[in-house]
Specification:
Layout: H1 3-8, H2 16-23, E1 26-31, E2 36-38, E3 46-52, E4 55-60, E5 66-72, E6 77-78, H3 81-86, E7 93-96, E8 100-106, H4 107-116, H5 118-144, H6 147-157, H7 161-164, H8 167-174, H9 178-185
Antiparallel strand pairs: 1-8, 2-7, 3-6, 3-8, 4-5, 4-7
Helix pairs in contact: 4-5, 8-9
């Protein structure tokens, strides 16, 4: 079974013809480590599903400090959603932490697919709900948890991330210095 089909069928059931129709709206691309899939100022006209690899979405503050909004690993979706939905300039960068294999759907194809196939509209609605829950939990964690608690939660939820991502990026995601991360890690 195609891995995208398996992913979609966690939420909706599909016939072979329906999946073939869905897959016809996607393109596959391979990106190298450190290669961008989106830069600040560009319009995010693609939403990516990660087959293999690890990516990060991030921005720089006025002092040049990097802030990581999200990591993306296998079976995760990633784009700048404000830019994608509104077709406006992106506020973030997205690049590959590892060599990555991705499927993407363009904004136009996603709109066409959801208009022609209501099952996919339901799929993306549910994925959006899950995304909002994850975002809410991230905000709550940043506001109420200590850096130690945020570190432990990330380790509990995504233990493999710590083997795949440099410590400075973990620190940028947690909102702490690399030195603080070293103390949390000991």
């Amino acid at each position: 079974m195609h891995i995208l089909r398996k992913h979609i069928e966690e939420i909706i059931s599909l016939t072979d013809d329906e999946f073939d129709f869905i897959l016809s709206h996607f393109e596959q691309v391979k990106k190298r480590k450190h290669q961008y899939i989106l830069q600040e100022g560009e319009v995010a006209n693609k939403e990516y599903w990660i087959i293999r690899g690890c990516l990060k979405s991030y921005f720089f503050d006025e002092k040049g400090k990097e802030h990581i909004v999200q990591f993306g690993m296998e079976n995760w979706w990633i784009t700048d959603y404000e830019s994608f939905v509104k077709q406006t300039s992106s506020k973030i960068y997205i690049d590959c932490i590892e060599d990555s294999q991705l499927l993407y759907i363009t904004y136009e194809n996603r709109e066409k697919l959801t208009a022609e196939m209501h099952k996919m509209e339901r799929f993306w609605a549910k994925k959006s709900k899950y995304g909002r829950i994850a975002l809410q939990n991230r905000i709550l964690s940043l506001l109420k948890n200590s850096s130690k608690e945020r570190y432990e939660l990330l380790l509990e939820q995504h233990p493999t991330l710590f083997q795949r991502v440099p410590k400075k990026l973990i620190a940028a995601y947690l909102g702490v210095s690399r030195e603080t991360l070293s103390r949390l890690n000991s």
